[in-house]
Amino acid sequence: MKPAKTSPVQIARRGLMLVISSPSGAGKSTIARTLLGIDKNIGLSVSVTTRPRRPSEVEGVHYHFKSVREFERLRDSDALLEWAEVHGNFYGTPREPVEQAMAEGRDMLFDIDWQGAQQLQEKMSADVVSIFVLPPTMTELQSRLHRRAEDSEEVIQTRLANSRAEIAHWREYDYVIVNDDLDTAFDAVQSIVKAERLRRDRRHGMFDFVRGLLEETPSL
Ligand code: ADP
Ligand code: 5GP
């Protein structure tokens, strides 16, 4: 007779807030999208922004696109967990979906800049895991911004001009990845997520599990 199948051990844990930042064009959105496609246990925090929508972007999927007035109303009513002005536009993280995900032990990914990362770190440091993505060279960063072909030349120049100031914040992050080869960079991100999910201090369910383990008396 086959032994009865036991269900896999599930240990309850807190949700993870995975923050990814980089200078524009280094590849954080590509990495984020790949992760969201593969890993169904992680959801995207969809930001609000006053930036004009790019041709490939969909309202509510990539961003919630707002007027400056609407953005200010959200910000002033404390509906944003963090917000910042980046490259001349406002961006912010809606509070409610994040609080709900954390309460339910679901992981969330944040594609936000260093100012937003700092604010989340201050407010929710125990839950935040932060990754900074660097380009292999500044020349490649410039090429990627052009290859993406979604912004005007003027916007690309603003982003390039801001990139050195953004890179200066690399030391504020838990992990730093050089996105030279995309597969290698993505593997690194997956390894980080895997290991961070296993951290003892995130797995409160381990108390009950170990208690049960110690109470068990194996029958011969
Ligand atoms: P970010 O979100 O950091 O602004 P994107 O993810 O939009 O950057 O990437 C910018 C461009 O670079 C996109 O066209 C993307 O396909 C490309 N890209 C991303 N990672 C790599 C890589 N490792 N090698 C070559 N091109 C890349
Ligand atoms: P993009 O216009 O290329 O989508 O984003 C520009 C920058 O704004 C990127 O560095 C991106 O990570 C950042 N960003 C996007 N959403 C938010 C947000 O909600 N808060 C903050 N602080 N930055 C954001």
TrEMBL record:
Transmembrane segments: none annotated. GO terms for molecular function: ATP binding; GMP kinase activity. One of its GO terms (cellular component) is cytosol. PROSITE patterns: GUANYLATE_KINASE_1, GUANYLATE_KINASE_2. Its EC number is 2.7.4.8. Residues 15-194 form the Guanylate kinase-like domain. Essential for recycling GMP and indirectly, cGMP. PANTHER family: GUANYLATE KINASE, GUANYLATE KINASE-RELATED. This is Guanylate kinase. It comes from Rhizobium anhuiense. The lineage of its organism: Bacteria, Pseudomonadati, Pseudomonadota, Alphaproteobacteria, Hyphomicrobiales. The gene is gmk.
